[in-house]
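User: Show me sequence and structure for the first protein, then do the same for the second.

Assistant: Starting with the first protein.
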Amino acid sequence: MDVRWKLDNIYKGVDSEELISDIEKYSAELDSLNAFAEENFKEGTDPERVISQYIEKVNHILLYNKISAYLNFILSADTENKHAAKLFDRVSAISAKAAWSESLFREYIKNINIEKIAENPVIREHICFLNREKEAALHSLSPEAEKTAASLKSTGSDSWEKLWEGISSSLMCDFRGKEFSLSEIRGMAYSADKAVRQDAYKGELSAYEKIASTGAACLNAIKGEVISLCGLRGYKSPLEESAIGSGIDLEILGAMIDAVDENIYELNKFYRIKAEYLGEEKLPFYDLFAPVGKGELKFTFEEAKDFVKAAYGGFSEKLGNFAEKAFKGEWIDAFPRKGKVGGAYCEYIKSLEESRVLMNFSGNFEDIITLSHELGHGFHNEVLRNETPINSDYPMTLAETASTFCENLAFSRAEKVFSGENLLTVKESRLSGELQSICDIYSRFLFEDSFFKEREKGGLSAEEICRLMTEAQKKAYFKGLDTSCLHPYMWLCKPHYYDADFNYYNYPYAFGDLFARSLFALYEEKGAAFIPQYELILSNAGKKTVREVGLLAEIDFTDKEFWEKGIKNILKDIDSLEELMKK
């Protein structure tokens, strides 16, 4: 069964008259917004009127996100669709026009006291957005320079990103004399057969060698652009820009990273006990996802859907109904195939109040977790359906809250319905995922940080980039993995490195994991009484600061002890797994 998402209720096709018409309308709306900005963002205009009208216009224009979302869906499922790629380039160029009104607005709002006009209902509703814009104004170039930068981006980092997507999605890997897509061969990392895992790992690394030089060129160009623009905008580093863009600051980020760093050896106990269970002295990279236990946990997609619906429904009727709505609405493109990008994501079409999910289902229990995770994003969008488009946009640090919480729901159900060897498999799988969100994410953070520092001195070769990756993995998997068998090409595997707008993309997953663990502990303590509080947290993700959202759960994100409490809970689970393994 080939499960693909339904897209024809968005547009009938890339040649549809409605799509072409909407692209033209979108362009005209941006031109109109720019004209409004040029006319009104001047000294002496009425700030209450001007700002409230600007907000209303932006909310309207944001509904056109269905154009780029649709084209992204088409290209994600078929990277060779040249017509869609051409339209995507056109839409990207049109979107760049938004930078002009945005830069004029930021220049205007610098000297406006927002509190004095906050009684206006539109302004009051978007006060968090306005404060973010004032902060962003401190790191903005002149309106003319921002307009130029946005225009050049479409032929700069955007083009390099598309090149990487093309070479990685079409990359074929040799496995025992046959060719497999990258998604298929990476799925073999979960095989119960060690020889399969090892041969797939070797095939994957050999395939990466074919595109390493091109991938290095892409990464150097993208990160080089980021470094240049960060310097021009007055950021101390791309890391500072990332933290601010993620709704936090270096104090919060530092508290979390320090907590991880100081507990990295204890966290790596998971890999040491897994190596011992598998009869190895140290764990090779290709055994990171080796299944533990002798249970036969394989699922059809229909079984995966039923599992997720039951897990969601066990939390609340609203969440269960949402899962049913997503499945009946055919929101999911499920299976890997040639030309389809790897990984998984969820994207929201605000004008339709629907999401779409891409994944690469292979029948493993981990795929159930992926499905739970991505639909968790969808539920977050569902909770925000009555919010304005501006207030539906939340920072990356909070973006993983609902998704990771829903992972916990799936794991909680699994631990209730499975027993014996299957229970061992589930517990190990849960910790494997969490350690990916902490140790592996830590390695990616260390890698990206070192890459940026080296890139400031000049371009790096593929070999030099591989060295930085293995050094980061050695520190993050401290005495947990076999350092002679790491993954030097992980920088070619993850799409996040190639998006100039999302640098240091990965640490929000660690943030989300530890935050979601705290929320799940509150749920276990309060039961159904927690549900309104949970939805309140999700509904405020776009209209309160990250610190304020934390306080809704009585959490101080600047306190290192908060992060350490989450880590200690994970360490307890590792000890529990060790006892289960001994049995």
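Switching to the second protein now.
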Amino acid sequence: MIKMEHLIHRYTIWKSETEKSKKTVLDGISCDIPSGQFIGILGPNGSGKSTLAKHMNVLLLPDEGTIWIDGKNTADREKLWEIREEVGMVFQNPDNQIIGTSVEEDVAFGPENRNLPSEEIQRTVEASLNAVGMIHKRKTSPSYLSGGQKQRVAIAGALAGNPSCIVLDEPTAMLDPQSREEVLKVVQYLNKEKGITIIWITHHTEEVTEADQIFLMDQGKIVKSGSPQEIFAQPEFLKSIKLEVPAITELSDRLRQNGIPLSNPILREDQLIAEITNLKHGFAARQNERENHQDRQKDQENQNDQSILEVKDISFTYGKGTVNECKVLENISFLINENETVGIIGSSGAGKTTLIKHLNGLLKPQHGSIFFEGENVNDKRYRISKLRRGVGLVFQYPEQQLFGRTVLADVCFGPLNLGSTKEEAEQSAKECLRLVGMDESYDYVSPFELSGGQKRCVAIAGVLAMKPKILVLDEPAAGLDPGSRLMIFDLLERIRKERNMAIVLVSHDMDEVARYTDRVLVVHGQKLALTGTPQEVFSQTKFLDEIGIGVPQVTSVTRRLMDEGIPVSHPAVTMEEAEQLLLENWKGADVYA
């Protein structure tokens, strides 16, 4: 299907306002991808994955080397449109490819351009939308959809083109766990039953455990390839290039290193449950129920309970009074306290992004009130600029708020608009850029030439330069490699402590929420359905599964092991806790040998 020989691609990099150079992003890529395979591509941010994907759809041409798609050389301009019909493309940000005024119009774009009969177009659109669970939104404008819903529409648009190969660049980065699983099942069906070649670029390693082959990329090269069993049996190598093994594989590896005889590697939850259950007699019966040992409580004891922001009974409806009326929030109330980290979770379309837009005045509640530092922001005499200075918002896609010609100019924008001199603004901007790990070599680079993780850092720096008291982040680590995710959350924790700042985190990654937040808010059915510590919230596994959120994978494993009679006192919410709970009652294979 795809053959590459010594593929090289270079980008132009600006070192200053006048000096530029070339940066090699793909450095001699050679590989073969047979028709009908499911290929996983893993690699840290900046390793060249997205650039490679664009070559497969002829959005880019090689500086050196050759790439053939189904026997056609991408350098042959006469074959350009034939190749693009062969290879469908789904981008990380669906806004880059959604153009229709309604969902069905957007999905129909490809079939219409192939001059298909109207009846066939209608059948194709319906089948594609059914496949991604969006048929009920066919008449809806994409502007009314959540980020996760838009991604599903983008995938439906690719499916409607009836390609031989589909390249998906982080297609589930913004989806809730249930939607992620549904999309993956659809793509696996297309691969196994329809014979479509799938190239799946992701940072969720558990999504490629059933791939035919995995390519690992680092610094523009394919550094290793093999089956999932071969790749994930080398956790230290993965960590050396800022990747991680699936959570199930990591947990089983930790247990094996501590004497529990498990296979290497274990890639799926069912396999781990089965192997541990077979070792049931090696676990001693639990003598006493343990109390929850979450260290998180000590942070809550030290935090100041003085609330900075109060949300009181707010409601919001899009398109109110029109045929597209859609109620999103109803009577939502909660507090944000000083120096705490609050997680907001919910399925795609639950209203999380709409909710946080209220926190800094991008949207005004149609009912209810918001109080910032004791002042009602709905008061006609209240200056909304005060709220926006005090509550900084980093969007789901950082490129939506980056617009400066250079990184430094972009971060300077906020302080300049608050009345700082150019010198003061630059000093503040450089301080914040250094705080997020961007050294002076990036000051005069265009923000649009950066990797996803670097863009996220610049966006955070731009908000920090405004010196807010609350930092609100919508999916701050989506699409980032494990090393970049860890860097982002370490950065946020350092900022919270150094600046005594509250952080509000919206995420579809339950492991992130469990590990990094003090309190969790669950948005469902237009309301605040559940609130509490991560341990309290994630103990409600049945309810969370029912509403499509799910729980951290280690929570699911430990809950299932409890049901199988393994002596685990309570469901774990972090990897470290799951390891401790299982090891503390392990007495060894000699018990039953």
